[in-house]
Design brief:
- By secondary structure, the protein is of the alpha/beta class.
- About 30% of the residues lie in helices and about 25% in strands.
- A hairpin with a 5-residue loop joins strand 4 and strand 5.
- The chain starts with a helix and ends with a strand.
- Bound molecules: ribulose-5-phosphate.
- Ribulose-5-phosphate binds near residues 31, 33, 34 and 101.
- Ribulose-5-phosphate (5RP) binds near residues 31, 32, 87 and 103.
Length: about 220
């Protein structure tokens, strides 16, 4: 089965999960990426039953609005019941690398502000050790070179993501050649570097449930 079909399978699984737990006036968090785009298409069928959504990127907000799904500012919503988002890599402890789509900071904020983080991914994303996918780090533009030098000291190879400005007006460094044996420790170490806004390790607050789209259907991974 093609990767796209696996993404669609995972997205349908997330839709079923959300639909079963939908309550009046529920606001759900919606992430960014191609897997989530399939989820948004499914979600449009029950748009009338949702109070609305909070989007992790301008692109997702646009897509939700195109499907007549209301989009709210997180500040007015309190804690969200469910957040649905994809991942670039996930380990069996449900720790993730995210930010391939440069939306990591808003994704991390929504994950922190949600009671349940439901992650959706195709089978290729499930790994034993995080780090084959280059780890994105969002940086304040003027701090880019300084942050890059500190990352080298931590053993990584940072590469500036050309022509990429995040929704927050910042830049991205992608860190190559990391074997991330202790994701929590690295997440904290990167956050300590002055000039870093967020890093794409979701270890401290990983996913609660991972729905993996496979050729045989949805595989549910929990800790
Ligand atoms: C965006 C992300 C995405 O969730 C991640 O890149 C996965 O994308 P896709 O579903 O297209 O494979 O973190 O910042």
């Amino acid at each position: 089965m093609a990767v796209d079909e696996q993404k669609r399978t995972a997205a349908r699984g997330a839709f079923d999960y959300v639909e079963k737990r939908l309550e009046n006036d529920m606001v759900i968090g919606v992430g960014t990426g191609s897997t989530v785009d399939y989820f948004i298409t499914e979600l449009s069928a029950i748009a009338h039953r949702l109070a609305g959504t909070v989007a992790s990127s301008v692109a997702t907000a646009q897509r939700l609005k195109e499907h007549n799904i209301p989009v709210f500012d997180l500040n007015g919503c309190g804690m969200l019941e469910i957040y649905v988002d994809g991942a670039d890599e996930a380990n069996h402890n449900l720790q993730l690398i995210k930010g391939g789509g440069a939306a990591l900071t808003r994704e991390k904020v929504i994950a922190a502000a949600s009671r349940l983080f439901l992650c959706v991914a195709d089978e290729s994303k499930l790994v034993h050790v995080l780090g084959e996918f280059p780890l994105p780090v969002e940086v304040i533009p003027m701090a880019r070179s300084h942050v890059a030098r500190q990352i080298v000291k931590l053993g990584g190879d940072p590469v500036y993501r050309e022509a990429c400005v995040t929704d927050n007006g910042n830049h991205i460094l992608d860190i190559y050649n990391l074997d991330i044996m202790d994701p929590r420790k690295l997440e904290q170490a990167l956050n300590q570097i002055t000039g870093v806004v967020t890093n794409g390790l979701f270890a401290e607050r990983g996913a609660d449930i991972l729905l993996v789209g496979t050729d045989q259907g949805v595989r549910t991974v929990t800790c």
